[in-house]
Structure formats: C-alpha cells, structure tokens
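Bench notes, bay 3.
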Amino acid sequence: MNIDKQIEILKKISIRGRLAYGMKCLEQYVKENEINDELIDKVFDILWEFTTSDELDVWDEKISDFNPKHILNIKPEKIESEYPTITINEYYELKKFYENSDTDFISMIEKVIEIGTGNLYGGTDEYSSWTLEPTLEVIKMSELKLEHIPDITKFKSFEYSEDKGWGKKINRVTCE
C-alpha cells in the first residue's frame, strides 16, 4: 500500500487504534524474531493499558519509567525518585534487557510510546498529526523488518471521530 493511502486510512483511525496497531506490529516483531523475555510481557502490558485507561496521566508516568529512551540514555541520581513506578531491580533488568535488544526493536517500542504520548497534553486537531507521524514510522519499520505486517485496514473500526480523536476503548484480547 502506498504512503498516501496509508495516511488517509490512519487519519480516520483513533489514537487508541493507532497505538493498538503499533502494538500488533511489535507483537509480530517479537513473534518473528523469537524474542523471549518476561520483561516483554510487562512492557507490553503497560503499553496496552493506554487503550483502556481513563487515567492517561498515570499511564504516562508508568510508560515514561519503562521507556528505553529514558532507561538507556539517562543516568539517574536517585532511581527511586526519578523512576517512581519501578523498583531498582526492575530498572537494572530493563536496562540490561534493552542493552541486549536489537536497535530496531528498541526503536519500534519508542515509536509506539510516542503514539501514546503524542497528544496527551494538547488538542488532537483534525487528525492528530502528533500521533500520525510515529504511527507511520512504525509502519515503515514493519515493512522493512517483518514478513507479515498486520493489516491496518482491520483497525478502521476504531474511528477518529469518536471521543475527540481518542476513540473508544480497545480490548487487547479481541483487537484485530
């Protein structure tokens, strides 16, 4: 599918739908690359919380503490105060996991996080350009790195016209 068609489809998909699509791409990446680690489940569970949460400020704090960009690039003075939702052990486990993961996987996680955080504290405008760009990046990475790319058209039912662009809540189990 060409980029213009992808953009037109994405503009009609809610922010929650875009994040769910990004998660499906991440899950496919893990499956195809046979990545096995219990931390993946923990990170993915927190990412998926976005699609059902009524308290996105709480989700934002949690996901910030799990963000590879923060774990890998910031040397905290005090882990307990700078990463309030994880333990010291979790911090070091995440750091080791991210350091040993390939850069494509880390980049994809960061882009999915950007989808979720892109419009948290601002207006969503006509189609949420702040979440559109990282979603397109996830699609580009998926096209390069995945044999089986999730079908974006299956996410059309998560309409941008609902709930001021955020869309209806999405059940992870039944999401397709």
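Next record in the batch:
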Amino acid sequence: MSEQVPAREVMLGTRVQPYLINAFGRGVQFRDSGTTRVSDEIDRIFDSFTTDYLQAQSAYLASDLAGVDAARAAFQAATTQRVNLLSQQLTQSLVRLPGVLSKDKGMAAAPLQQFLTRRITHPRLPTSLLATLLNTSRNIPLSPGAPEAALYTLTATNAIESARVTTINASKFAISGVFRH
C-alpha cells in the first residue's frame, strides 16, 4: 500500500512546514473573533438599511404619477434620513475600535468621522453612499415595471454593497492597527 501524500506536498512538490502555511494563510480572509464580531455587526446594520431602503423605494415607485415632484422629494428626504441613521449606527459600532477617534496634528476630524463623511453621508462626493443614492433617484421613473426601475435598484444595491464592503475593510484595518484616513 502506498502512503497518503498530504495535499500541500502534491501541490508544491515538497513538504512545507505547517507554521509557514499558517503564517501565509492570514491575509484579508482571516477572521478572528474580534473581526468576525465587528463584521457581523456591520452586516446586520447594512442588512437593516437595505431592507428599509428597498421598502421606501418600492413605495416611491408605486406612488401616484400626479405627484412626481412631491414623491421624489419625499423619497430623497427619507433616503437622507435613513443614511444618517445608518451613519449613527455605524458610529456606535465602530467607535470601540482602536485608533478611530484619535486625531493627529493638523487633522480636521478623527479617522472615523472622515470615513463616514467621505463614504457614507456626504451629499455631493461621488464616493459617498448618500450622493450615489440621491443622484440616481433623480432619474428614476415612477413605474414599478419599468426597466429603468430595475436598473436603478441594481445601482442602488451595488452602492449599498460597496459601502458595506468598504466599511468592513476599514474596520479590519482599525482592528489591525493600520487604519488610515
């Protein structure tokens, strides 16, 4: 009977020491209990936001065509309020991470404040979730079955997922001690 050869020997052609595999296995995908806990909390916050946002969008799309401007204004106000609530929830979650509140000399705001402003709440920065949601809602037709509505929903959900991933990555950098603004 032949001896079973470990997969790491077959793939690399030589035996690799386990401590090397463990050292190189700790990359972006590595999650310890602290990283998992923070990532899970961020996921819950964004899941709640996504549900609320899509419900508001559905109500907007189903609104009466006679009040297009009023419906759009109400939807944008609801979007702004919900994004601000998202920012507050993220602040409560991320404020416990190391270094996010410490301000270096010459900095106008702490890294957490800068991150949330640039990536979540700024109404005019193209990298901001709020700006993306507000800009695309200006062009959406009031018709639930319109192809433009499906495209808008896709754009909005992509923007939300991008903000989620960016926030999780920022939290990982904060946990590892290399958070930069």
